[in-house]
Amino acid sequence: MTDGIIFDVREFTIHDGPGIRTTVFLKGCPLACTWCHNPEGLDHAPQVMRSPGGDRSVGRRYGAVELAELLARQADILASNEGGVTFSGGEPLAQADFVAEVIDLLPGVHIVLDTSGFGTRGHFVSLARRADLVYFDLKVMDPVAHRRWTGQDNAPILRNLGLLAELRRPFVARVPLVPGVTDTDANLAAIAAAVASQPTLVRVDLLPYNRAAGGKYAACGRTFLPAFDEDRAPNADIRPFQRAGLEVRVA
Amino acid sequence: MNERLEGLRARTREGHFRQYRQPGAPDLVAECDHEQLSWPRRMARLTRRMCEAEIVVIEPDERIVFTRTLRAVPPVHSPADHAALTVGQTLHEGGLINNVCADWELALRQGLLGRRRVAGATRSRMASAGNIEAVEFVDAAIETIDAVLALAARYATEARRLGRDDVASVLERVPGEPPRTFREALQALRLLHAVVWLSGHHHVGLGRLDQYLWPFLAADLAAGTLEIAAAEELLAEFFIALNRDADLYPGIQQGDNGQTITLGGLTRDGGAAVNPLTWMALRVARDVGLIDPKVNLRITGETDLALLELASDLTRKGLGFPQYANDDVVIPALAAHGYALEDARDYTVAACWEFTIPGRGMDVPNIGAVSFPAAADAAVRNGLADGASFDAILARTGAEIGRQVHERTAPYERLLWAPAPYYSVLMTGALEAGVDHGAGARYRNLGIHGAAAASAADALAAVRRHVFELADVDRAELLTALEADFVDHEALRWRLAEESPRVGLNDPAADDLLRCLYDRLADACEGEHPQSGAIVRPGTGSAMYYLWLARGRDDGPLAEPLVGATADGRLRGDPFGANLAPTPGTHLRGPISVLQSYAGIDYRRVCNGGPITLELSAAVFADAESIRKVALLVRTFARLGCQQLQLNALNAEQLLDARAHPEEHRDLIVRVWGWSGYFCELAPEYQDHVISRHLYADV
Question: Between 20 and 30 A from B320 (CA), which of A100, B301, B614, B665?
Answer without folding.
Answer: B301
